[in-house]
Design brief:
seven-stranded antiparallel beta sheet; disordered C terminus; alpha+beta
């Protein structure tokens, strides 16, 4: 921000922006921390799934063209176990996830499984993993009834956007803050410098990821157009907008046509693109429909270019190019989801997402340290409540995530509803961390104890993976299993970092009012 621009922003405007900036962070900081942290993990969901599902650690060399007729259909019949199949879908293997994921809906229930590219059904994975737990937690908080979770996440995203814009207005020295970090100064000064540094350094990414996140759920949170044109029928809107096709069952039995020629025709229509997901609706019926989605790893846009075939004759039913508005929406969605195949960018998304956590966390910590001056060395119930909440939503969230990953390696494979037990451990560990913080917060939350727990759990995850699967880092390097090696290395770095932080916090002297009062306000 230049000196001329600074003059255009009056001190009164900056002071007015301070209030929404502060309280948006204090009231929604914990929720935003959850959204950003889970979104960061979702960038490497396939790799974390591979770590949490050892049975799927087949070699990437085994990935090749998959025959739906010879490799997939027999697996579908095994999963159906003699029951009449109504619908099924298969997610085809790729370089990051060299196994197939299948889901079958029958007249008497659903069944799912994972198989190799040649059609060998693998043992049940017994976990939701990152793809089915961490990722949905990021965008819906697992509250999908009535789209409640989407609304909450969108509201928090709008608050984040307001916080970013008000932060730019507040900081008159935004260019100078880019180069400023005084780690040797007072604790509160260092927190503010780190907050400013992460906010300025990654500001374009934070703006992009927040805006595109809001755009993705726009039809849900702003349903006026859908209500006016489609009577609130969201699925019919998506059918038109995304080129979908559906028809009811006819009740007349008919066999499914060969699927491989449909795959070949879809690839021809795409001009060489590869199929990623295949759906079969109304299986075994004369109104069967086969949908083939394109793999989007070679492009930014999340446009899957669905191709629909008649399931009985194999004739092309629908292939529709998106209009300009939908195409733009798909590009913005692709920018947010980062499904494209570009490893350096994927790591940048992961690190920038964690920098968002740091931005939110340092903002909450700065607010706590600032309010400590007003409350004294023995703060009141209000300050202690916010401090405990901050502790539970930062280190407590890390503890819950690591506890779930450790449980993934410790729980026996055959216990009933194993995946739900893991989810229960996640929430129990999170609640226990929050209660621990609430009980022990007096002059400071129990940062040191919780950082020690993070370090021990992260180290235990690496050791447990080695003990239960025999895959230590050396063996992962020899097998070129970079996904498992990467997860282990991040866990090891987390353990070392958390341990060093916990030891440093133990040596930190208790705050004194005389010292606290010397710090100046950034407004």
């Amino acid at each position: 921000m230049t000196a001329k621009t600074r003059k255009l922003i009056s001190p009164a405007l900056r002071a007015a922006m301070l209030w929404p900036h502060t309280w948006a962070g204090v009231t929604l900081g914990g929720l935003l921390m959850l959204i950003f942290f889970m979104g960061s993990l979702a960038v490497f969901a396939s790799e974390i799934d591979r770590w949490m599902m050892p049975a799927t650690r087949v070699g990437t060399a085994e990935v090749g063209p998959v025959s739906l007729d010879h490799a997939v259909v027999p697996v579908v019949e095994k999963l159906a176990a003699g029951r009449a199949v109504r619908d099924w879908f298969v997610q085809l293997p790729d370089e990051r996830r060299p196994v197939m994921a299948l889901r079958v809906r029958t007249e008497s229930g659903n069944a799912g499984g994972v198989a190799t590219a040649d059609g060998t059904l693998l043992p049940p994975v017994g976990t939701l993993g990152a793809g089915s737990f961490f990722y949905p937690l990021h965008y819906s908080l697992l509250l999908k009834t009535g789209f409640v979770g989407y609304w909450i996440v969108c509201f928090a995203s709008v608050a984040m956007l307001a916080g970013l814009i008000s932060g730019v207005i507040i900081h008159a020295r935004i260019f100078k803050d880019f180069f400023t970090f005084r780690s040797w100064g007072q604790f509160r000064r260092s927190l503010l410098d780190l907050h400013n540094l992460t906010g300025v350094l990654v500001l374009p990414f934070h703006l992009m990821i927040t805006i595109t996140g809001i755009v993705i759920v726009l039809p849900i949170v702003l349903p006026a157009g859908v209500q006016a044109l489609y009577g609130g029928d969201l699925m019919r809107f998506y059918d038109d907008a995304l080129g979908n096709y559906s028809r009811p069952r006819s009740g007349i039995a008919a066999p499914l046509a060969p699927l491989d020629p449909m795959m070949a025709e879809a690839k021809r229509l795409w001009g060489g693109g590869e199929p990623a997901v295949v759906f079969v609706y109304n299986a075994g019926d004369a109104a069967a429909v086969v949908r083939v989605n394109r793999d989007t790893s070679d492009r930014i846009s999340l446009n899957v270019q669905p191709v629909f075939f008649d399931g009985v004759t194999g004739a092309l039913l629908k292939y529709q190019a998106p209009g300009p508005i939908v195409a733009t929406h798909r590009v913005l969605s692709g920018l947010h989801v980062a499904a494209f195949d570009h490893w350096p960018l994927r790591w940048l998304y992961f690190l920038f997402g964690l920098s968002g956590c740091m931005l939110i966390g340092t903002g909450m910590l700065y607010w706590m340290e600032k309010r400590r001056v007003a409350h004294g060395v023995k703060p009141g119930v209000g300050w202690r409540s916010v401090a405990a909440l901050a502790c539970g939503s930062t280190t407590g969230l890390l503890i819950a995530t690591l506890a779930m990953m450790a449980a993934n390696r410790l729980l026996p494979a055959g216990i009933p509803s194993r995946e739900l037990v893991e989810v229960g451990i996640f929430f129990l560990a999170w609640i226990a961390s929050a209660i621990h913080a609430a009980i022990l917060t007096r002059t400071d939350p129990p940062w040191s104890a919780q950082c020690t727990a993070v370090a021990l759990l992260a180290g235990a995850c690496v050791a447990l993976n080695w003990i239960t699967t025999g895959e230590h880092p050396g063996r992962a390097v020899a097998a070129a299993d970079w996904a498992v090696l990467g997860v282990d290395l991040v866990l090891a770095l987390t353990a070392v970092g958390a341990w060093r932080v916990s030891r440093r916090l133990v040596r930190r002297p208790s705050p004194e009012l005389s010292t606290l009062a010397k710090v100046t306000d950034h407004a």
